[in-house]
Amino acid sequence: MKLFFASDLHGSLDATEQVLAAYLSSGAEHLVILGDVLNHGPRNPVPESYNPPKVAELLNAHSDSIIAVRGNCDSEVDQMLLAFPMMADYAWVMLANGQRLFLTHGHLYNAEKRPALKRGDVIAHGHTHIPVAEWQGEQIIFNPGSITFPRNGYAASYGLLEETTLSAHTFSGEVLASISL
């Protein structure tokens, strides 16, 4: 299974177009969106090319391959524009090797506040806008970074799960973080 991860689009049309182009060229089976899809949120500036209705339209064209969770900037009004469910606070993905991916945005569950997990499970979240792929205690913490508002000097980034490797990449091809499962 190959998964493509994006987080924190925040309604940016340019960022969404870039994500979809990378997703389609990656050959991934699913686009995993880790929240903050349409709204920029009260703590962020309005992003360049802010166009939530057009972002929804572009994403809806791929609704049959999207797995999404709710971010702290997502609301029921946002869900009304989207053809795929995105109001769950978390979702599980089971890998063929029995490992579990716990998908969440990061504002409720994260490296510091974890649900009940087994050794080797992965918490995949956004919210911090900082790419991470590392063991922390008994679990792997994975964050693809942010497409629209990267922080701490990082470039805009996305994530990939390819066979047994989780990694965060810039759109120019640089690997920012990587870990073997």
TrEMBL record:
Its cofactor is a divalent metal cation. Residues 1-163 form the Calcineurin-like phosphoesterase domain. Keywords: Hydrolase, Metal-binding. Its EC number is 3.1.4.-. It holds the Pfam family Metallophos_2. It comes from the Bacteria. GO terms for molecular function: hydrolase activity; metal ion binding. Belongs to the metallophosphoesterase superfamily. YfcE family. PANTHER family: VACUOLAR SORTING PROTEIN VPS29. This is Phosphoesterase.
